[in-house]
Amino acid sequence: MTLTIQPLSSEEELADFECGLESVDVWFRQRAWQARPHVRTHVCHVDGDRIGCFALRLAIVEVTGLSSALRAGANASGQSIALLLAQMGVEKSLQGRGHGRTLLQEAMRAAAAVHAVSPAQLFVVDAENETLISFYESAGLRRIDRTYRLMAPMSRIVKALTV
User: Which reaction does it catalyse (predicted)?
Assistant: First the structure.
């Protein structure tokens, strides 16, 4: 099995992308290319077949009232720079084969590379639904009470990737 992760290029056609979540499908089909200046979209292939995509962007998040681990590095206003997993989706026909974990791990690797050269201190995900919250929690992200937002310090992400 050969996994390749590449930034979205003009050669990649996403018009037929379908993961089954309409907001994600529409974003990758219609907005990913135009968002390039602000959002870095990656396309993942296994043995040449597209398995899915993920998109990362920098964000400023409010961390006041959160754990000390999540507040580390915050400014005096209680804000921290984060890497937001803006979108992620596995091709619908390939779901249930572990590709979601693979995409998330690769998104975390890409975030760790950015973290190494930027002030980003957190990895953040805004889950689409309760099922996805469980998925992200199983990867070590912590749910922010009564929201669909999950976070982890980038130091924890980097450590998990080196184990």
Answer: glycyl-tRNA(Gly) + acetyl-CoA = N-acetylglycyl-tRNA(Gly) + CoA + H(+)
Give the contacts of 132 (CB within 8 A, at least 6 positions apart). Answer: 148
> 85: left (phi > 0), else alpha (psi -120 to 50), else beta?
beta
Q: State residue 1's pLDDT score.
A: 81
Q: Looking at this protein, which amino acid is placed at residue 36?
A: R
Closest C-alpha among 121, 114, 90, 124 to residue 18: 90
DSSP 20-51: S-HHHHHIIIIITTTTTTT-EEEEEEETTEEE
The CATH homologous superfamily to which domain 3-162 belongs is Gcn5-related N-acetyltransferase (GNAT) (3.40.630.30)
Q: Are 1 and 46 in contact, with CB atoms under 8 Å apart?
A: yes
Local confidence band at 21 (pLDDT 50, 70, 90 cut-offs): very high
pLDDT of 66 above 80: yes
The pLDDT value recorded for residue 140 is: 93
Compute the distance between CA of residue 104 and CA of residue 99 in angstroms, rounded to an integer: 9
Question: How many CB atoms are located within 10 Å of the residue 147 CB?
Answer: 10
Supply the DSSP symbol for 31: I
Residue 17's pLDDT band (boundaries 50, 70, 90)?
very high
Query: What are the extents of the domains in the chain?
Result: 3-162
Look up the pTM and report it: 0.94
